Amino acid sequence: MASYSLSKGFCERANQVNSSDELGGVEPTLQLLSVKKIAGGNGLPDRHRAIISDGEQFLQSMLATSLNSMVEDGTLRKNAVFKLTKWESQNLKGQRILILFNMEPIDHPANKIGDPVNAGKAASAEEPMSGPAASSSRPPPSSTSHPVASSAPSRPAAPANKVPGAMERAAPVFPIEGLNPYHNKWTIKARVTLKSDKKKWANAKGEGQLFSVNLMDETGEIKATAFNAAVDLLYDRFQEGKVYYVSKGKVVLAKKAFSNLPCDYEITMDNRTEVEECIDAGSVPEVKYTFIKLRDLGAHEKDSILDVLAVVHKVNDVAEIQTKQGKQLSKRDITLVDDSGHSCQCTLWGKQAEQWNHHNNPVVAFKGLKLSDFGGRSLSAFSSSTMHFDADMPESNFLRGWYDNVGHNSSFNTQGSGSGGEGFTRGAGGFKREEVKTIHEVRESEIGSHDKADYFDIRATIVVLKEENMMYPACRGESCNKKVVASGNGFMCEKCNLTWDKPEYRYLLGLQVADHTSQIWLQAFNDVGIMILGMSADELSDIKDREESEFSKVVQKALSKTFNFSCRAKQDTYQDATRVRYGINRVYGLDYAAETRNLHKILSQYSDLIPANYTAI
């Protein structure tokens, strides 16, 4: 027997309120009666319309895009019972719907619970749904006894340079995560994390001015831009670090070329936009980071926007370049390192490059860096990227101690441009389980036979690993990796013109892998070799020097192992012979839980074949 019961009466109460706060943070147990996908189109993500029930009544609702994966893998499907932990109410074309942000699955019973009726047939919180009979079905909610001045049609909208005292009551505070172009009556409570300078623009249609702010609440971050006359009205109102109520802006599709935020939308502000400083700012976070390690840059797509916490290991002098438009632009390259043992080049531009005066190896929290594959993997700062030096946070304090005690004398695997083939291993993004191809499909589809490199993912088993020339002695200089040659007093790098007492050995592997359809030869370099063989090339070289048979055992141990491979294919011509060469960008050990979830996702597409009493794990 089920150990839960639906929260009867919730749909009726939720249909009468403007905000979830009016119900005191209740987390009801509900049932999902149906889920229907609404295709996004024009670059917008897909959304899902749903019907939820408390056993007595049901309501129309919309799932936040963050729940898409739970719909796709079958967790949220017809008759699923769940706890609703985060939601907001929205009036859409006269109908009350709920926006669902967080749902915790409980069970998947075979049938609908109870015989619920439509809660929307009764009067909504703001206006009758259908005729006199509906309006008399219950008394109007108390919230209508507080009329909002800004919503009265007889009054003009409050000017943007005046504080609209009733804004806090004009609409429920809406989470940034829930904003989209289909809803225009909203108020957000958000902190300004970045405010740009005023900028001039000019094109064939005319000229004008603009500025932008990044606004953040506990659910996400969004860019808001004011143009022309709105700049004069709003620029002095916003201050970095302060919290504001903002309403009456237009939500539009984000222009990714001008934004470093992951949000799919942005806000356009005009002279009707209302801005009011919020005194009670305790619930809005200061800054929200999602740090990634430098070693994991290869798992992200080119042009991804990332947050990085790293030590500035080296600072180059500022340089001047000429843009395509003939303008002079300042740039400065800095080298970042972290405790993952990797380094990466980061480029600063304009004022950030010119005003850099930090030469004591600071720990920097970067927000909003752009990932590039120029010469390998590198990072670049926007004008809207932020840097927080020696921040008082546990991660920063740990990194400071690590660098002072260990890191400053360490050698690092570079994520930047490498030679000796290392640049070959850098590619586009991480492993995409849903796009895995068989080796036969790779060969038949002529991947890599075009001018540009192609990328693909396979799951395969190592069957041959060449022992000959699988390592080479490399320069120990940062970001070099060139092969060194023995000289009278050590090992010399012709590129760096430096001589080392001992080289750093690096992998250069040739391996054949196979799946159930075919086999293929792949080339792999140092990072991949470490993953496959379980040790560094220096360690394996020492073993080979001591005992050749032990060396062979290490190599043989790598055979018959199965991995997920992210690969690169590129046509190559050598001595008038053209062929496609295949290289490994990145290798991943099998995650059996993730593989099982993926299989479940695939099977859930065949819902007609799933037994009615089937319960997902």
What descriptors fit this protein?
single chain, about 625 residues, mainly beta, eight-stranded mixed sheet, six-stranded mixed sheet, 12 helices, globular
Brief summary of the model shown:
With 617 residues, the protein is mainly β. It is built from twelve helices and 32 strands.
User: Helix proportion of residues, in percent?
Assistant: 10-25%
| Most strands sheet | 8 strands, mixed
- Classify the secondary structure makeup into a structural class: mainly beta
Question: Which runs of at least 5 residues are low in confidence (pLDDT < 50)?
Answer: 122-170, 416-429
Rg (CA only): 29 Å
- What separation lies between the terminal Cα atoms? 18 Å
Number of helices: 12
The number of E-state strands comes to: 32
Overall mean confidence score, pLDDT: 80
| Tertiary shape | globular
Strand content: 35-45%
